[in-house]
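We emphasize that the prediction below concerns an isolated chain of 150 residues; any contacts that depend on oligomerization or on bound cofactors are therefore not represented. The input was used exactly as deposited, without trimming of termini.
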Amino acid sequence: MKITSVETFAVEGLNQPLMFCAIKTDQGIVGYSEFGEGRLAQGMKGLVRDLSNQLLGEDPRAVEAHYIQMIRSTRMAYGGATWQAIAGIELALWDIKAKALEIPVYELLGGPTRSHQRVYWSHMLSYQVRSYEKLGTKSRLDHMTTYEKS
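Result of the prediction step, given as a token string:
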């Protein structure tokens, strides 16, 4: 299996876009990740593009080796947006590996640690969804639109 392309895209949120990464393989598996808020959308796209150039044609399942390679290649840009971009790529690689093995990602990271997990929505629009009648609006999430295509 080889990486054929790495793409980023942003989806417009309420106050700022949310950044996503999609890594495609020659076997048709696509790994996805969400890696932050995109006030720096164009800069993040550039970081992901530059970091991912070294991954094209490589086996995506060597996640840790790729992570180390990206960290080493950016040693002068420690932390911040650089690490956010690396995280977006790394998470999409884990997604590919899990899909190839037909298991959930958490199995690759040591398996379940609890039988139940509370979930939350930190987007702050849950009030609008819960209280739409009080607000005199329809319960909807159509504010989530595509911010950019590539």
